[in-house]
Amino acid sequence: MNIYTKTGDKGQTSLIGGRVNKDDIRVEAYGTIDELNSYVGQAITQLNDRVFNELKEELVTIQHELFDCGSDLAFARDDHPYKVEASMIEVLERRIDEYMKEAPELERFILPGGTQAAATLHVCRTVTRRAERLVVGVQREFKINDAVLQYLNRLSDYFFAAARIANSRENVQDVEYIRSAKVFKKGKKK
């Protein structure tokens, strides 16, 4: 089996149902989601099985869901069933709430970093935000599954919470941004 087709040699690629230039905003959006998926895979390899088994399983599920996001964006027409749905967002919200309860309280913004896994999860968070911005651009030009945008918005929050857990469970303290005002209220844990 050849993995190269030569069909993109002139700067075009296929969407489901048509061809577009490789710099089409839809290709940029799902390409960024693909980049994010690779960072998620890297984060998985950096997490200790014993301490982070459930987090690793969640991240594998997220990898599948990121493929679903890309699939929903890769259609040239809007006459197809979507894969991303509200229940996926609800799962993220529950996990965010659980992780934020477990992590030490915050008063200020924190610097991305700590353990290697936490640093990679922060990269995941920022790449998710970039993907989200690109999907907003796609949404201005094309009809899309709105759940993709909502999912990415929640996913960046999930990665923040997961990065905090990656540090907390390894007894590594988050580093507060020294010029940050107190932006989080103490005593407001759910």
UniProtKB/TrEMBL annotation:
Gene3D superfamilies: Cobalamin adenosyltransferase-like. Residues 82-109 form a coiled coil. GO terms for biological process: cobalamin biosynthetic process. It catalyses: 2 cob(II)alamin + reduced [electron-transfer flavoprotein] + 2 ATP = 2 adenosylcob(III)alamin + 2 triphosphate + oxidized [electron-transfer flavoprotein] + 3 H(+); 2 cob(II)yrinate a,c diamide + reduced [electron-transfer flavoprotein] + 2 ATP = 2 adenosylcob(III)yrinate a,c-diamide + 2 triphosphate + oxidized [electron-transfer flavoprotein] + 3 H(+). It is an enzyme of class 2 (transferase). Keywords: ATP-binding, Cobalamin biosynthesis, Coiled coil, Nucleotide-binding, Transferase. Pathway: Cofactor biosynthesis; adenosylcobalamin biosynthesis; adenosylcobalamin from cob(II)yrinate a,c-diamide: step 2/7. The keyword Coiled coil applies. Residues 3-165 form the Cobalamin adenosyltransferase-like domain. InterPro entries: CblAdoTrfase-like (IPR016030), CblAdoTrfase-like_sf (IPR036451), PduO-typ (IPR029499). GO terms for molecular function: ATP binding; corrinoid adenosyltransferase activity. Its EC number is 2.5.1.17. Homotrimer. Belongs to the Cob(I)alamin adenosyltransferase family. This is Corrinoid adenosyltransferase.
